[in-house]
Design brief:
mainly alpha; 3 domains; elongated; single chain
């Protein structure tokens, strides 16, 4: 991507161009696709054929498309992705209707994957890595969210199991209740590890949290482990 105002090549989709201080798509002197000089009235770049009018009109959100897509898939029924994008009103509506009985959930997931979903300011969620840095991605944050969600589910499950056994004191239910204690421990460790992943601190703790997330909720835990493993270099202490 190139700044339309000064032609400087940019990494990711930063809000401000460090070369001229303007918004990257605010100008009309350079092509955002190839960096060639363009006529301010041109609609198409003569050098690469990119449509300049569309590029000028599009405003890209700093929100992560990866996080939006994962939240839409795993927790879309509860509107988690809309809470993340700042769309509180529709997120609550989605939570109450369980994703519009699945229909709204499916539409939002497709929009998230294709990059046609917008944030609360109407900006498109296009970039998988909106941080503007080749070294930093949304993977640690995504892994942290997955670990915390998996841990919370395990924690709720364990507490419910223990509470159920406590209400009916029989030998079988007592043993059943004891089985809920590991779920509580796994959930707490997963949540703590998820916090470290969100902070990009102590990769080992983040990985342990992801492993315990696997023990709490298999599907979320697998993704948490994968994302934590491949983003090891982004942690302060690895």
């Amino acid at each position: 991507m190139f700044c339309r105002n000064c032609g400087k090549e940019l990494t990711g989709t930063p809000e401000i161009c460090l070369g001229c201080g303007a918004k990257p798509l605010a100008g009309n002197s350079f092509c955002p696709a190839c960096g060639a000089e363009t006529n301010p009235l041109a609609e198409i770049c003569i050098k690469c054929g990119a449509r300049l009018a569309e590029a000028e009109a599009v405003d890209i959100s700093p929100k992560s498309r990866l996080v939006t897509t994962l939240l839409a898939w795993f927790l879309g029924m509860f509107g988690a992705h809309r809470f993340y994008l700042g769309k509180i009103g529709t997120a609550i509506a989605m939570l109450i209707t369980l994703g519009g009985l699945g229909i709204w959930y499916l539409v939002d997931f497709i929009m998230a994957v294709t990059g046609t979903m917008t944030d609360t300011e109407g900006k498109l969620i296009r970039n998988w890595n909106p941080s503007g840095s080749e070294q930093k991605t949304a993977l640690p944050m995504t892994a942290g969210i997955l670990s915390i969600v998996a841990g919370a589910l395990g924690l709720i499950s364990g507490i419910s199991t223990v509470a159920l056994a406590a209400t009916r004191a029989t030998d079988i239910l007592f043993a059943f209740g004891l089985a809920g204690i590991p779920s509580i421990v796994f959930g707490v460790v997963a949540i703590v590890g998820g916090y470290f992943a969100l902070q990009r601190r102590t990769w080992g703790m983040a990985l342990v949290g992801a492993i315990f997330a696997l023990l709490s909720t298999w599907g979320l835990g697998v993704l948490a482990i994968i994302f934590t493993a491949i983003s090891k270099g982004e942690f302060e202490q690895s």
